[in-house]
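Hi V.,

You were right to ask for the full record rather than a summary. Here it is.
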Amino acid sequence: MGFKWGVKIKKLTKKQKMVADALTDISYDGTLEDICLQYSITAEMLYTWLAEESFRQYMDLILNGKTFSAMTGVWKSLLNQCAEGNIQAIKLYFELKGKYKNEKSLAEAQSKPPMIQIIDDIPKNEGDSYGKAK
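Predicted structure:
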């Protein structure tokens, strides 16, 4: 379960926050045992914390912030490429914004069966637009 806005996270200790920061550090290449040694906790304590909803919510909060930060960097990079006239970047931008469909995606959309299909099975008589006999 991910972090939900408006849900109050139980207060964590300073050590718990430091461990959560270490666990969510994407540049860290150590093991869980290394983290336990670095912060002077037992593996049992770490797994107890990981089982706590508030600890996991705090980690989700950290990861959401890092994801948002990375996403803004990606968008800036894409926009810079568009400004430089990179056609592939421009196409990608419009595809992501739903304003452009390339030939392949258009062909795929046309080859899929429609979500709703209306079948008119009422026989029509000549001269009658409602299917009723005169």
